[in-house]
Amino acid sequence: MSESTSQLGPTGDSNSIPTVSGVSSDTESSGYVPREVSPGDALLPAPEHVLSTLERDGRRRWIKPKLSMGLWWHRRRIVAYVLMVIFVVVPHIKVWGKPLIRLDITARQFTVFGHTFYPTDTLLLALLMLSAFLTIVFVTAVTGRAWCGWACPQTVYIEFLFRPIDRLFEGTAGKGGHPKKKLPLGLELARLAVYVFLNMFLAHTFLAFFVGPEKLSMWIWSSPSQHPVAFIVMAVTTGLLTYDFYFFREQTCLIACPYGRFQSVMLDRHSMIVAYDYARGEPREKGKRSAGDSKGHCVDCNQCVVVCPTGIDIRNGLQMECINCTQCIDACDTVMDKVGLPQGLIRYSSQDALAHKPKRLIRARTILYPLLLAGVVSGLVYAISTKFGFDARIVREKGAPFTNVERGVISNSFRLKLVNRSDKPEHYTMTIVSPPATLEVIDESRLDLEPGSNSEVPFTVRFSSGQTLGVGNAPLVMEMADSNGHTKRLEFKILGPR
Questions:
Q1: Going from the N-terminus, what domains does the chain have, and what CATH number goes with each?
Q2: Which of 56, 117, 280, 457 is 20 to 30 Å from 236 at the Cα level?
């Protein structure tokens, strides 16, 4: 494939591109020189790259970024290796006897930081998801796309696991860039085999978050015929990961992931981004600088472009494709050292800081987002702390609202929906507190529940008809208790004659 990523000039292309007569072209911003196109021209070339991973004729542009092992790269490598270990270890960690994170879809139980969420925990799940969303929004508003460049598994694995493998097979280890010659078929197949093996490991790690390491280990050492569905899921996951890291690669960030598009509403002019100091760098020109020189500090070496893993030119300003990987910072600082100019031409900064406007750490976003996040997290903590070890809800049975059992005695039929949220078997008891009434449980065995299980317990309440005279109903209070003595009061209405 063409190595046109490294051939782009400061405006994105050094050639003049034809445009249709009568259509305006912003030549100052694009650098393109318009010309007339005759009606006989069959194909009109695109005036610019729609995606950094596509050539103008629609072919795939394979990005093989060079490697700049500067200060920021070493920091990212440490973070990446720590995160790789965390990704593998987390499914094996337990808190209070429960997994740290377990997303058991088949059992409909989500365990996060040792607390298990059930399908009935709609409010808790909503607060948890809202807390995660507000955290992302707040971090992005302050630090920009720090997640993308430093912590996203896609970036971590492709930059610090799979690209090093590519460079090892292509003979560009330690420097990166396009190889001098095409890889022989044998080595290409060997590299693919390594990819499949590593992605198989990652697929098993991924599945451990859903089924747990114990069940996963049993599946690994048993025949696939004993668990065909799990084997198919693992195989499909391995295939998808291999396709992603071997072929799709950075296009996941540019096309599939919506986060880059969301950043336009999450960032403001004070958010930290990887930015090129246009005022200091322009006008750019190759060669060293002398005292009193009017040239900008950018020597137009193009190193910030050839090291970019998404193939963009940071000098064109803030772009959706930038993942804040800081490779352009390391490359530019190295060049600045060589030409005797101060570092920081490309650096972590903000749009207002580059415009020499005062920094504003305290602003609407940095006040509103933390307040919202604190409120949601407080609500989540309160909801969890007041949550019982069991859920109990009473619904009225279908049919007649009440039945005359005998003279002066009324019967109402109900159904108790019970969920055991604890980690051990429980036996529950039901007691009527007020008013005086007789409770009859149809099947008391349904009050014995295994951990995480649920049951529906039919029961009837008999009471004097005089209790509902007047309005036709009366409040009733029932007390539920588990084997540990934890109680919960339930209030509902009994119905009878007026």
A1: 1-58 (no CATH), 63-387 (no CATH), 390-495 (2.60.40.10)
A2: 117
